[in-house]
Automatic annotation (TrEMBL):
Pfam families: A_deaminase_N. The keyword Glycosyltransferase does not apply. This is Adenosine/AMP deaminase N-terminal domain-containing protein. Keywords: Signal. It comes from Cervus elaphus hippelaphus. GO terms for cellular component: extracellular space. It comes from the Eukaryota. Residues 1-26 form the signal peptide. Gene3D superfamilies: Metal-dependent hydrolases (3.20.20.140).
């Protein structure tokens, strides 16, 4: 029974394909056209850069490509490394330091929607190894994961980094500290 239903469908496909003109585009051309349309649909895809912006973009791309080529030749591909191994290399990256200085525009607080609550972070993530903290001059807790110890902070930011695991061992009431830090 299924063979009888398949035969008319196959015949219809053959007839339709014989009347339709063959496309003059190769597979590569069709792929490139699709990729171009996808790029245009991205945020900023239809944005036209000024000559100065285009020059800055070309320079940034060249720096990025040079860093990628260097990483590939040395076998030190940062995304394949543990964060603590890659962190110092990332911070030395010329591209990273340029991007760090750039305005974030409308995407400034996008990450707020994708992270969990401060309460969960303090009561879970901060119990992992190599978590350091300090209180800023305004009394706001700052957390940083680092191995070895994070660099000495600027005095205006916080007096010193303290290993949280060691600090908690000296507390009488760890829950009180965790609750206060997550607010």
């Amino acid at each position: 029974m299924s063979g009888r239903l398949a035969l008319p469908s196959l015949l219809l496909a053959v007839i339709v394909s014989s009347f339709c003109p063959a496309t003059s585009m190769s597979g590569d051309d069709m792929r490139n056209q699709l990729l171009t349309r996808e790029k245009m649909m991205r945020i900023g895809g239809q944005l036209v850069l000024t000559q100065e912006e285009e020059l800055a973009n070309q320079r940034l791309k060249a720096l990025k490509e040079a860093e990628m080529h260097k990483a590939l030749s040395k076998g030190s591909i940062l995304p394949s490394m543990h964060f603590f191994q890659a962190k110092n290399l990332i911070e030395k990256s010329e591209v990273f330091n340029i991007l760090k200085k750039m305005p974030k525009g409308a995407a400034l607080h996008v990450h707020d929607f994708s992270i969990t609550s401060p309460d969960w972070l303090v009561k879970n993530a901060t119990y992992r190894p190599h978590c350091y903290f300090c209180f800023t001059r305004r009394g706001i807790p700052q957390f940083r994961f680092a191995h070895p110890t994070p660099p000495t902070p600027k005095p205006a930011e916080c007096p010193q980094w303290v290993l949280l695991e060691k600090f908690r061992k000296g507390l009488h009431n760890v829950s009180e500290f965790d609750n206060r830090s997550s607010q």
